[in-house]
């Protein structure tokens, strides 16, 4: 017997989100209905991992109860149903980010997706060196004398893979610096991105500062010299309408667990002709056409990058997650979170002894604003102590370097505290957080 799916309690509307509708949205998220240390849970760690509506939880359970089988392998009915669900999920997620279905490769997360591109480019170098793949492979190869460009803002997942690619191939890693406020120094970018640049990798939105990158300018600089662009869309795909083809990037990575889906599922977007040209990274079953004892021939993308048994139930649940986000409306979600982000930034900046990281409210790049995320440093109190104090009030935030040690070092810090909102965050929760934050220094006896 199939599960009876729980429909979302909200009603689609072109009007802006308000607290009344957000309260209805919250009813779809079971985990939010609890107390922590005697206080109602205020979950402000969605930048790390989002929560799941019932429709997503039920979609994964329904798959296991009704359609569980290996995909692309069997002729029996369950296998057909599983394959249809798996590929329908690809269609849904592709449509959500403005891509074609064969431009979406399933991965475990965005980290794997970025590593996939970096290792595939390294494999292209090896193939080209041995005369495999023709002229197209030589165009993808990275080697001595070539340059890979990142930014000083990057999450480690969009930095270390490029460090390693440079090490393996003899290329040089360069980076676009930030100013004292954490804004990219675009005048330096114009000097750094040059004829030797083969890859430009950057975050769409900073996971520390919440600021949105000047994507059009960076893509333009890369295109001018024929470099590939790799977009870390982990903090943009969940929070704003996304059209990857329209942005003009060559590759992009995003994770399901930051956008209402389960852990263990992410996606790589790649322009079709590039994915088909790149060598595979993981090899084995399900991604080949012909195998002899001497060699193998590989399927076109996306299957050439999906060796072995895949994340089938997670992909199905990912599709349910984007259905939910579409039901609410990404324009409405983005507008709601922009307001929350502005209030977070303004409120944090107004508390004595608390330093907001990144551009001052209203001083972001080209008026691009910020997502609903803000990191800060409390003078005289370690970030972990700040997090524990807030937790005692039922408020969940992130502490540490947020996998961005170089950026923290540039800002003169080793760690910070981060509050991040989502579509289920109310203005009352933001105010509760700001009220608790204002008490931290006095609690630890460092207020003047």
Provide keyphrases for this structure.
Aspartate Aminotransferase, domain 2, 448 residues, alpha/beta, 7-stranded mixed sheet, Aspartate Aminotransferase, domain 1, 4-stranded antiparallel sheet, transferase
Descriptive overview:
The protein is an alpha/beta fold and 448 residues long. It folds into 2 domains: 19-53 and 330-443, Aspartate Aminotransferase, domain 1, CATH 3.90.1150; 77-325, 3-Layer(aba) Sandwich (Aspartate Aminotransferase, domain 2). Helices cover 39% and strands 15% of the residues. It is built from 16 helices and 17 strands. The chain has helices spanning 19-26, 54-66, 77-96, 110-129, 134-140, 160-169, 186-192, 215-224, 244-247, 272-277, 312-328, 330-349, 383-392, 405-410, 427-437, 440-443, and strands spanning 35-36, 39-40, 42-43, 104-107, 147-151, 172-176, 197-203, 228-232, 251-255, 266-270, 288-291, 296-298, 354-356, 373-378, 395-396, 398-400, 416-420. The protein has a 7-stranded mixed beta sheet, sandwiched between helices. The chain has a 4-stranded antiparallel beta sheet with strand order 13-14-17-16. It has a two-stranded antiparallel sheet with strand order 1-2. Strand 11 (288-291) and strand 12 form a beta hairpin. Helix 2 packs antiparallel against helix 11, helix 3 crosses helix 11 (312-328) and helix 4 crosses helix 5 (134-140). Mean pLDDT is 94; it is low at 1-13.
């Amino acid at each position: 017997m199939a599960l009876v799916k729980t429909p979302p309690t909200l009603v689609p509307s072109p009007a802006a989100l308000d607290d009344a509708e957000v309260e209805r949205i919250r009813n779809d998220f079971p985990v939010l209905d609890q107390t922590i240390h005697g206080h109602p849970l205020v979950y402000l760690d969605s930048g790390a991992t989002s929560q799941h509506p019932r429709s997503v939880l039920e979609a994964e359970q329904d798959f296991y109860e009704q359609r569980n089988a290996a995909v692309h392998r069997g002729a029996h009915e369950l296998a057909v149903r599983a394959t249809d669900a798996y590929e329908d999920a690809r269609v849904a997620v592709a449509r959500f980010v403005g891509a074609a279905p064969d431009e979406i490769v399933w991965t475990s997360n965005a980290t794997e997706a970025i590593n996939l591109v970096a290792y595939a480019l390294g494999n292209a170098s090896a193939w080209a060196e041995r005369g495999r793949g023709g002229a197209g492979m030589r165009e993808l190869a990275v080697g001595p004398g070539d340059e890979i460009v990142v930014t000083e803002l990057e999450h480690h997942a969009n930095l270390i893979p490029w460090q390693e690619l440079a090490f393996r191939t003899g290329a040089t890693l360069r980076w676009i610096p930030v100013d004292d406020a954490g804004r990219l120094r675009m005048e330096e970018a114009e000097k750094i991105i040059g004829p030797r640049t083969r890859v430009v990798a950057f975050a769409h939105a900073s996971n520390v500062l919440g600021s949105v990158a000047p994507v059009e300018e960076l893509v333009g600089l890369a295109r001018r010299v024929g470099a590939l662009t790799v977009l870390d869309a982990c903090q943009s795909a969940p929070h704003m309408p996304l059209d990857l083809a329209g942005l003009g990037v060559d590759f992009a990575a995003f994770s399901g667990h930051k956008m209402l889906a389960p852990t263990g599922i992410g996606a790589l977007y790649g322009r079709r002709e590039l994915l088909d040209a790149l060598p595979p990274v993981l090899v084995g079953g399900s991604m080949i056409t012909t195998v002899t004892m001497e060699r193998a021939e590989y399927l076109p993308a996306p299957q050439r990058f999906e060796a072995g048994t895949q994340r089938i139930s997670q992909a199905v649940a990912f599709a349910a997650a984007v259905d939910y986000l579409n039901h609410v409306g990404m324009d409405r979600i983005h507008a709601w979170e922009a307001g929350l982000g502005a209030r977070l930034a303004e409120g944090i900046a107004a508390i004595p002894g608390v330093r907001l990281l990144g551009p001052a409210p209203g001083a972001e790049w080209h008026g691009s604003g910020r997502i609903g995320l803000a990191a800060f440093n409390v003078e005289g109190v370690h970030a972990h102590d700040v997090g524990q104090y807030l937790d005692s009030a039922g408020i969940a935030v992130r502490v540490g370097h947020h996998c961005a040690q170089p950026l923290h070092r540039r800002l003169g810090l080793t760690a910070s505290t981060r509050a991040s909102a989502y579509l289920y965050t109310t203005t009352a929760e933001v105010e509760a957080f700001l009220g608790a934050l204002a008490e931290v220094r006095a609690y630890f006896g460092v207020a003047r």
